[in-house]
Amino acid sequence: MAFSNALTLSDLNDFINPSQACVKPVAIEKTGPKDGKKAKLTVTLDGDYFQEEEDGTTSVLESAKITLNDCLACSGCVTSAETVLITAQSTKEFLSNCKVNEKNESNELNRKTIVVSISPQSRASLAVHFGLSSISTHKKLTTLLKKELGVDYVFDTSFSREFSLRESAAEFIARYRKNYGEKGKELPMLASACPGWICLAEKNHGEYILPYISSTKSPQQIMGTIVKEYFAGKLNLPSNQIYHATVMPCYDKKLEASRDDFYNDILSTRDVDCVLSSGEILDIIHEKGIDFKSLEESPLDQLFTNVDKEERLFGMSGGSGGYLEYIFKTAAKELFGITVEEIKWQPSRNNDFKSTFLEVEGKTVLQFGLAYGLRNITNITRKLKMGRSQLKLDFIEIMACPSGCVNGGGQIRPQKGEDPKEHLKRVEQAYDEQVVKLPEENEEANGMYKEWFDGVFTTEAKTKLHTQYHAREKMVTNALNIKW
Fold it and tell me: What pLDDT digit, counting tens, does each position of 263-288 carry?
């Protein structure tokens, strides 16, 4: 459920020219006479469609413009069509904003503050590609973005993930106690951080599955809220004067950022203006002719970045965010007073589908699982539709990509001759180059919780850090009546 690996905006040479308008398939409305007479369809050399009646009158057939909300992220459409539809989420758009700032350097009224938030998975991918440590890569990325491209601030989405984890854990405990969620559909709670999975659930499973999905925003979108509301307030800037880009391991994050739910009508801005993949950052490095390994290591922004005083990166373990581990340990402690030191997995031959459980006095009180990849997701949704007796898990960490986010479709691919499995293992090792700390040990996040939300899972936190999902109608039409 990710965009195809071939998706780039720098190499459009198949089927659809980038200068052409991108359209989604639309059913041709038959507006001919009711007496049964037939109309003729004419296609001009320019690609326009005309409907010609038997009396000679003609009418132009309009095609629907595609938006990111129309996309299912299924990799099933023509590559160029995918690329054209995400023009606003491109390296070209990002560099254009950087260039505008450069021209208006002395004109504060026309200049925007540019913020880039980097995911730890993307950092690990770039670290492996260049043969560097994760901390060195982050420092060089800071140099690249600030000194070469003119970015003002470089943050780390490990910081916003602290909020996502704590809200998710509090939400699970509330659902377990039946104090939150749709009645009868409190559990199992399904993780919500993967936009490919959310897209699939909304368009393929609709109202039956959606109540089970956690309402907590992903780290990307929580960082968007922090930057556009909290940080804008600290800078005394209007939110729409900040241009916020993220660097992510997944193309579906572009879809997530473009959701209507994440556009603030009051502030007239999106939480995240542009999403770049790990591979697109590499494209920028190559395009600019920059020797990345020779860049100096700049000090990291201490604000909204998980780095301690010794300049060590820190955060939860787990290449997809550590949701299962953190929620399981928190629920065990909060609900049953049990401290779980280490997750013990049930024996399984499938690394993308694992489960664990907690027993109290011989009774199983918690059952958690993770399901990565479309096949495992399909099994989960099928069993859930059959009833709770078929799926006894209380929480499921769901990710659309096999092996999770470190193996996202936007990550840098193995180099020629490199074994993909070995490459993935190195990315996972680079990701784990951090001090493992629990979210509640993050003093800066604790301070923000107290100042901005008055605590975890409060009314204010639910307003800012949670969202909703919508069943989206699937297009059903005769393939013979589709205009491409």
Answer: 999 989 999 999 999 999 999 999 99
pLDDT-based confidence at 69, cuts 50/70/90? Answer: low
Q: Under 8 Å CB-to-CB from 111, ≥6 apart: which residues?
A: 101, 104, 105
Residue that the structure tokens 């904003």 belong to: 97
Q: Which letter does DSSP use for residue 27 in this model?
A: E
Under the banding of pLDDT at 50, 70 and 90, the label for residue 474 is low
Residue 184, pLDDT > 50, answer: yes
Q: What is the structure's pLDDT at 27? A: 46
Q: Of 41-55, 82-96, 341-355, 416-430, which range is least confident?
A: 41-55
Burial of 433 (0-12, 13-18, 19+ CB in 10 A): middle
Label the pairing between strands 189-190 and 269-270: unpaired
Closest alpha carbon to 68 in 22, 122, 31: 22
The dihedral through the CA atoms of 144, 249, 280, 108 has a sign that is negative
Tokens representing residue 353 in the block: 């589908």
Single-letter amino acid code for the residue at 116: V
Percent of the chain past pLDDT 70, that is, above it, reads 82
pLDDT > 80? residue 299: yes
Confidence band, pLDDT 50/70/90 cuts, at residue 63? low
Q: Do 255 and 73 touch, CB atoms closer than 8 A?
A: yes
Would you say the C-alpha torsion 384, 191, 456, 211 has a positive or negative sign? negative
CB-count exposure of residue 45 (10 Å: 0-12, 13-18, 19+): exposed
CA proximity to 357, closest of 318, 394, 384, 399: 394
CA distance 170 to 179: 11
Q: Where are the beta strands (DSSP E) in 113-210?
A: 113-118, 153-156, 189-190
Report helix, strand or coil for 78: coil
* Cβ-based neighbour number of residue 471 at 10 Å: 15
Q: Backbone phi, then psi, for 56, in 5-degree steps?
A: 95, -10
Closest CA to 171 of 319, 315, 330, 325: 330
Between CA 166 and CA 439 the distance in angstroms is 7
Task: Burial-class residue 185 by CB neighbours within 10 Å (0-12, 13-18, 19+).
Answer: middle
Contact 320, 327 (CB under 8 A): no
**Alpha carbons 146 and 154: distance in angstroms, whole number:** 8
User: What is the pLDDT, as a whole number, of residue 37?
Assistant: 63
Sign of CA dihedral 129, 130, 132, 135: negative
